């Protein structure tokens, strides 16, 4: 059944919707200009890295703690500085045209925009401009509400982060249109009554976002 509730909030995931990022250890190492060493891409090493990434993105590890533990998890095949390089290279670039679509969205005074991202403090800082440098990936900073897993200490697709987001923004259920590239995240959002759009991160995302906004009569 189509809801009669008007959409008041458009929420975006960051990676895979606004921002392209690496999808594997091998891809991240290559993006950093390094070579793949030892058994660091093996299933066993992946199994050691995964809980560290989850703890980092929910704020349970500081940046220093994360990289020290990661150093051990990859059998010290990479130095701490090299792990910093891999981590930073993981974020690639913004999808072309997404900034312009969001600029158009902001011209609709009836709509509030938001971000809900599974991320970590080191990546998060790169969308925020400072007095010393502009943001590396500025589009997310233009959104009205910005919420991240490491700040909420919760992560998608767990239901708790969706409840926390609704409480923080004051919007709920069918008032929200949510863009994400992972089916599990979309499924939980749908359980909360959010309108959803599953994005294909392997293609340019701006046309997909624009089409959905037009289908919901948010953009002309």
Textual characterization of the structure:
The protein is built from 10 helices and 7 strands. The mean pLDDT is 98. 40% of the residues lie in helices and 14% in strands. The protein has a 5-stranded parallel sheet with strand order 5-4-1-6-7. It has a two-stranded antiparallel sheet with strand order 2-3. Strand 6, helix 9 (183-191) and strand 7 form a beta-alpha-beta unit. The protein has 2 domains: 9-20 and 94-215, 3-Layer(aba) Sandwich (Rossmann fold), CATH 3.40.50.1000; 25-89. With 220 residues, the protein is α/β, with parallel strands linked by helices. The chain is globular, with a radius of gyration of 18 Å. Helix 1 packs across helix 4 (80-89), helix 2 runs antiparallel to helix 3 and helix 5 packs parallel to helix 10. The longest helix has 15 residues, at 43-57. It has helices at residues 25-31, 43-57, 63-73, 80-89, 98-105, 121-124, 149-152, 159-169, 183-191, 206-215; strands spanning 9-12, 19-21, 91-94, 112-117, 145-148, 176-180, 195-198.
Summarize the structure.
By secondary structure, the protein is of the alpha/beta class. It contains 10 helices and 7 strands.
Our count of helices gives 10
Helix/strand structural class:
alpha/beta
Quaternary state of the chains: single chain
Could you tell me the number of beta strands? 7
CATH superfamily of the largest domain: HAD superfamily/HAD-like
Helix content: 40-55%
Task: Tell me the count of domains.
Answer: 2
Strands of the largest sheet, in order across it?
Answer: 5-4-1-6-7
What is the name of the CATH architecture of the largest domain?
Answer: 3-Layer(aba) Sandwich
> If you consult CATH, what is the topology of the largest domain?
Rossmann fold
Distance between the termini: 24 Å
What coarse outline follows from CA principal-axis ratios?
A: globular
CATH level-1 class of the largest domain: Alpha Beta
């Amino acid at each position: 059944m189509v809801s009669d509730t008007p959409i008041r909030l458009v929420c975006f995931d960051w990676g895979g919707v606004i921002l392209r990022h690496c999808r594997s250890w091998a891809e991240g190492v290559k993006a950093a200009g390094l070579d793949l060493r030892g058994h660091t891409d093996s299933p066993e090493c992946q199994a050691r890295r995964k809980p560290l990434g989850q703890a980092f993105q929910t704020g349970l590890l500081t940046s220093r703690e994360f990289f020290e533990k990661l150093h051990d998890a990859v059998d010290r095949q990479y130095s701490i500085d090299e792990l910093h390089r891999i981590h930073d290279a993981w974020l690639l670039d913004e999808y072309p045209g997404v900034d312009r679509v969001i600029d158009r969205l902001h011209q609709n005074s009836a709509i509030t925009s938001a971000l809900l991202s599974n991320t970590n403090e080191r990546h998060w800082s790169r969308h925020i401009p400072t007095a010393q440098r502009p943001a590396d990936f500025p589009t997310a900073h233009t959104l009205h509400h910005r919420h991240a897993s490491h700040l909420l200490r919760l992560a998608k697709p767990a239901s708790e982060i969706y409840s926390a987001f609704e409480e923080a923004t004051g919007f709920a259920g069918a008032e929200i249109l949510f863009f994400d590239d992972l089916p599990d995240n979309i499924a939980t959002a749908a359980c909360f009554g959010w309108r959803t759009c599953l994005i294909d991160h392997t293609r340019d995302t701006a046309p997909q976002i624009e089409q959905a906004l037009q289908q919901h009569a948010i953009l002309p």
